[in-house]
Amino acid sequence: MRITGTGHASMRIDTAAGSILCDPWVNPAYFASWFPFPDNSLLDWETLGDVDYLYVSHLHRDHFDAEHLKRFISKKATVLLPEYPTSQLEDELRELGFTSFFKTRSDEVHELDGGLKVMIQALISPTDGPIGDSSLWVEHDGVRVLNQNDARPTDLTRFNELGQVHAHMLQFSGAIWYPMVYELPDAAKTAFGKQKRDRQFDRTWRYIDDLKADHVFPIAGPPCFLDDTLWQFNDIFGDEGNIFPDQSVFMEEYAKVGGTNGIVLLPGSVTTLTEKTAETTHPTPVDEFFANKQQHLEEMRERKAPVIAAEKASWRHPEIDVLGALKKRIEPLLEESIYMAQGVGGPVRFDLTDSFGPDGEIIESIVVDFPGKQVRPYNDEKVRYRFKTGRALIEHLIHIDEGDWVNSLFLSCRFSAARIGQYNEYVYAFFKCLSEERLQYAEGWYDEHEKAVEAEDTQLGDWTVQRRCPHLKADLSRFGVVDGNVLTCQLHGWKFDLPSGRCLTSVGHKIRAEKNS
Q1: Using one digit for the tens of pLDDT, what is the confidence trace for 145-197?
Q2: Residue 236 contacts by C-beta under 8 Å, 6 or more apart in sequence?
Q3: Model pTM score
Q4: 400 φ, ψ (degrees, to nearest 5)
Q5: Is there a contact between 224 and 7 (Cβ–Cβ < 8 Å)?
Q6: Which pLDDT score, from 0 to 100, does residue 453 have?
Q7: SS3 assignment, position 253
Q8: Residue 464: strand pairing partners
Q9: What's the pLDDT at 219?
Q10: What helix, strand, coil percent values describe the chain, rounded to 5?
């Protein structure tokens, strides 16, 4: 089996029975804020895109690059489709010209032509990707690969059942806006960022230890930020609170916990994998490349500046009545929302500026009033969350009829945020579901989730607790760590006060726990 690195979470897997291209991403994503690093735009995509199979793990735009898929990926390729509850991934791929789809069943092994075996594990909670994330397992001639990309399964048991995995590809770096965009003192932002960075690595070590693959490949991050207003998010300033460590940092941290089987793939790197060996060639020495990281980034920034400028020129639509358009779009969804509206539990405010981000002058303030089920002008009341961003970005979301503001505005980091109280997952879940289909699915999922009675317990130190985390049902016998009276679920870093059962990370999600006598 031959594995070619093609950047970020993307790779091409070649076997004697066929080739699979995974998650090709080249063009900037999220309002031109994210770019792949190292740069992969100069690869021979005409050749790389001539494949038998295409696998797109989910709809996040650093995995689903519509422009690149349309231009470079063979439409003769058969799409290996995860079993998602909505048809959006298939629908968008069909719009790009793909016509051949192999619809997999989650956790089921499928044998394709020539003895090539694949299995896709689909994750389908409202907080998994843009309603859906997945991992791809591949086997041919006794060699097995797990491309976990940035999916976060509760455990890897199903993959272990299928035999020893020879190559494990997984995320290790950040892919979110927290804590950088929050309006916090620098010291607090650094402290929260360090906690986030440490949790990312802890989760990665746990997955690696669970699977015990022969070789580990750090992928799916980090992005780089080439716009001047976002440049500070690159991990080149010695900031211990930066949540975007690169592959070279992964290798250093992995060595500290005893890891000796890590392999870095640069764009153009090739690993030839057998049941017993992994031999890798690189287009340039890996250590030398990352030693010159800032120089590479500065060269990319200069080369991509016209791309960013062109994107920005397309965002302004001043003719749009933002308040009127949001009322028309959001108020019917508020009327139908039960769990998410109750979960948010208060108004959320958007301050819109005259720039492309939070630094400009506020020219309009709009409230999404979840209890009142309406969108209206801000009226000086207290709000649960406040977001500050460019009016042009909201104009563009309305113009393109974007139904997922998480997979566009929020991941762009082109905003600032403040909140009263704890993190509230329902806020972001709702703004991921600005369509009838997504809203109905998410409400149904929360309904089923809330009504499920988790009877099984597990022992953690001096405590008996419910085995499944109230957040997303992670197995606490594997991911739970107790320190005093606080339980931490290491899958997502959520914390619970055991004596009261109260969630310390977010609103709701009470845990059932009892101290052993």
Answers
A1: 999 999 999 889 999 999 999 999 999 999 999 999 999 999 999 999 999 99
A2: 293, 294, 297
A3: 0.88
A4: -90, 5
A5: no
A6: 44
A7: helix
A8: 459, 514
A9: 98
A10: 30, 25, 45
